[in-house]
Amino acid sequence: MVSGDMVALNDAKVKAAKPLDRDYKLADSGQLYLMVTRKGTKLWRMNYRFAGKQKTLAFGAYPVVTLTMARERRDEAKRLLLAGQDPAETKRQAAERHRLEQGTTFEQVAREWYAKNVDRWAERHADDVIRSLERDIFPHFGDEPIARISAQRVLKVLEGIENRGSIETAKRIRQRVSGVFAYGVATGLCENDPAAPLRKALRHKPPAKRQPAVTDLAGAREVLARAESTPSHIVTKLGLRLLALTAVRPGELRGARWDEFEDVDWTGQRFGPFRPIWRIPAARMKGTLARKGEDGGDHLVPLSHQAVDLLMAMRSVTGRLPLVFPNMRHGHQPMSENAIGYLLNRAGYHGRHVPHGWRAAFSTIMNERAKQIGRPDDRAVIDLMLAHVPKDKVESAYNRAAFMERRRQIAQEWADLLMVGRPGAAELMGLPYRD
Predict the structure, then answer these.
(1) Is 359 a catalytic residue?
(2) Does residue 346 carry a catalytic annotation?
(3) Segments of the chain assigned to CATH 3.30.160.390
(4) HEC-encoded secondary structure of 233-280
């Protein structure tokens, strides 16, 4: 290559430069020069030294990049050199950031974050996480580059969720969006988490209203008696009875499977002793895996004689299906989430007692009874029976081991108190009564 005169260039010289049979360069000031190729392409270049090495920086092609623009880029490169930075590396990093901003959307990062975490979550919680993002977030900015999404943009979407009355949902979704941004920061896809400071910008959730419940023993007996005398499908009636006997959450009852019941004498021969247990898998319990109760997260429900009697009767109806309480129209789907509630409403308890109310009835009645018989430790046992996990994990593990026998006793005491005067399950079904 040959060099031109060592005189600063001007627009006329740059424009007039013609291709030769070889590449050559026309020098400007401050190591800037114009490379003219054999094909007539004119490229701006700058030579410099960094960390003892000779390097070249490219500024683009003329005329897209004018002489003035090339000098501005040269001056910026020199400022970086004075600051101890390599202009070429700075340029490469900026280009990479731009590429990521243009090519990595919030939805792409969110799905990567979800895939990294899904194995730590219970199945129901994992489904709720991805559905909430697909429903409430992706339609708004899922296709936008994650690095360009501002706090104001996220807040606007969360406020829309609040405005439909879903205040708690907005809080949960903010946490999930924040988790996505934190993952983006960790992987270099964005520089900050704009959802983090929005926690205090969301509305305060008003105190939750207690679910209606009849919590005295005579009243609880009457609820069961009136509901069981109200016309309804037998699967719904027996579902209500088992809900009352076990005080589990309605969703846990609806999803009950035959293979979750252990140590039950299905033959009815009454040899034993048997210690029947309903093992509700952690994946079906409320909350995350860290809050799932005992034995690796499964919730163990000791079964009273009356509960086993009910299961024996139900087995003749739904024993060939995986679900104990299937949907009346679709046998492989759970009973409708409204079925038991509608039965209680028809029995005259609308606004007075809901399916979830059996938990309050069991807790109130059995805690009061514990005081009367001088067993204050029963409160911790009852909390465990309701799957309320103590904050102290060590205490929780100890209680699980120490209180199982007492839990079984309380389950039977509760069933004996509640079922006074009630027929057996087979009689309720209209089948011959088993003694």
Answers:
(1) yes
(2) no
(3) 11-100
(4) CHHHHHHHHHHHHHCCCHHHHHCCEHHHEECCCCCCCCCCCCCCEEEE
Residue 392 confidence (pLDDT) above 70: no
- Known active-site residue 204: no
What tens digit of pLDDT does each residue of 35-88 get? Answer: 999 999 999 999 999 988 999 999 989 999 999 999 999 999 999 999 999 998
The verdict on whether 203 is a catalytic residue reads no
> Annotated catalytic residue: which of 148, 398, 433, 434?
398
Q: Is the pLDDT of residue 18 over 70?
A: yes
Confidence class for position 4, pLDDT limits 50, 70, 90 = very low
pLDDT at 360 over 90: yes
Catalytic residue among 356, 406, 407, 408, which?
Answer: 356
Q: Which residue has the tokens 């805690």?
A: 367
Annotated catalytic residue within 74, 359, 406, 407: 359
Asked if pLDDT for residue 246 goes beyond 60, the answer is yes
Options 140, 172, 352, 388, the catalytic residue: 388
pLDDT class of 291 with cuts at 50, 70, 90: very low
Domain 106-201 -> CATH class: mainly alpha
CATH 1.10.443.10 domain span(s) along the chain = 217-428
pLDDT, average across residues 188-209: 85
Q: Give catalytic status of residue 353 as yes or no.
A: no
Catalytic annotation, pick one of 286, 291, 346, 400: 286
Considering 171, 237, 249, 254, which one is annotated as catalytic?
249
Residue 284: name the closest of 252, 253, 254, 261 by CA: 252
Q: Which superfamily, per CATH, for 217-428?
A: Intergrase catalytic core (1.10.443.10)
DSSP codes of every residue in 276-320: -EEEE-GGGSSS-GGGS-SGGGPEEEE--HHHHHHHHHHHHHHTT
State yes or no: pLDDT of 402 exceeds 60: no
| 11-100: CATH topology | Double Stranded RNA Binding Domain (3.30.160)
**Residue 406 a catalytic site member:** no
Compute the distance between CA of residue 208 and CA of residue 307 in angstroms, rounded to an integer: 31
Give CA separation, 429 vs 230, 253, 426, in Å: 13, 19, 5
